[in-house]
Every structure is written in structure tokens, then in C-alpha cells.
Amino acid sequence: MLTRRIIPCLDCNAGRVVKGVKFQGLRDAGDPEELSASYEEQGADELVLLDVSATPEGRGTQVETVRKVRARLSIPLTVGGGVRSAANAQALLEAGADKVGINTAAVEKPEIIREINHSFGAQCTVVALDVARRLDKTGFEVVTHSGKNRTGKDAIEWAQRVVDFGAGEILLTSWDRDGTRSGYDLELLHEVSSRISIPVIASGGAAHPRHLIEAFMAGADAVLAASIFHDGEYTVEAVKSFLAKQGIAVRI
Known about the structure:
There is one protein chain. This protein is an alpha/beta fold. It has a single domain, classed as Aldolase class I (TIM Barrel). It has helices at 32-42, 63-71, 86-95, 104-108, 111-120, 155-165, 186-193, 209-217, 227-230, 236-245, and strands spanning 5-13, 16-21, 24-30, 47-51, 77-80, 99-102, 125-133, 140-144, 149-154, 169-174, 200-203, 222-225. Helix 1 (32-42) runs parallel beside helix 2 (63-71) and helix 8 crosses helix 10 (236-245). It is globular. The model has no long low-confidence stretch (mean pLDDT 92).
């Protein structure tokens, strides 16, 4: 049986971990190197590091932060934020990333997904989908630039397209739920995961371990969480212990 993955997320800005609500109102949450080492010690399966200000500021990901985190980390590391080319991806992989996350650039130029796949393999190619419910409540649309830009692009169709372009994994974040602690958007998660063949990482809204179970039941292969770990409410070890008792296969 494949084990489910628990992945802490480090949203980074100016070399510090931050956390907000719907990508806004960011507050300091700690040092990325220290948090990375702590989460690995607690039993995290992987780590995701996202440079949340790279795209809005029109720059690349802070490579030095990636190097420092990798120096403390032996588990797989996915890095995203500001990736616009295969060259950007290569710089992050050389700095210590195992996978590269692409978001805004993939929406604007989908061919970049294929370029990164061809250069480094599907296992390195993660497409991040930031998704919001449409204002008229008729479905889901892709958003970019920290949720400020509603693209009008249907999120379910876009998820299917990125698979065709060569994505090896999808990081699916509900903009509506991010930081709200109201649980993952299970409808969105089910709609996407039931239509594609690659792994889906659920993100946005976790407040307690039962939310993670709900995400797995809705189709997630892995779950991303930030606040519950950064604020010290739960350790990764405690979450995994709870999940195992509920019959969820996790790596202890």
C-alpha cells in the first residue's frame, strides 16, 4: 500500500517564513533553515518552499535560501515562486531542490511545463494551481499573482491540460481556504483528482488532523499544511500518529 505524504510548507519572503490568509496579511513565522530541520526531525515526508513575493516583484526565487535549507535537509524539497524558464528551474535544482514548482509562468506560457519535463523529467515538474471559486459560484477558476489576478481559466480543464503538457504532480491550493483554517476545499479536490492520473497535493485550510483525513478521502495523494505546524499546535509526528490510528497509511 502506498503511504500518504505529509508535507509542511514554507512560504518565504525576504529569507523568512511567513503566513497569511488568502495570501495576504503576511506575518513572520520563523527561520526557514531551523523550521526545515525541525520538520524533518518530526518525520515530514517532503518539504515545499515557495517564494511568495518572487512573481509579484518580478524576480526569480531566492536561490541562497534554497541552498541554506538544503544544507539542513535530506528529505525531498520542492521549490517554487518566480520560475519562468528551464534555466530558472536548473538554478533551483543545482541549489538543492528535488522538484520545481511552476504557477504563473505555466498559465502564461504552458510550453514551459514541457520544457522542464524534457530537461529534467516529470518527477521534477510540479505545476501549482491556485484556484478560487468563481464569483458567480458556477465553478472554479485559476488565479495568479497571489490571487490578485482572476484568469477566467477553468481550473478543472487547466489541471487536465497541465498533465498533457508533462506535469508530474499538481500542487492544488484553494485560494478561498488558504489560512482560514476551515478545511480543504473537498469539492475542488475531488473534481481535480478524479479527472487526472498524476498525484495531487492538497493545500489550503488545514486546522487539525481530521481535515487531512478528509483531503485523503476526497482524492489527495499528499497534504500540505503550514499554520498547524508553524504555530506549534501539532507536530508532524503527532499528526501521523493520529492518521495511522484512523487507518491512513503513513510512513512512521
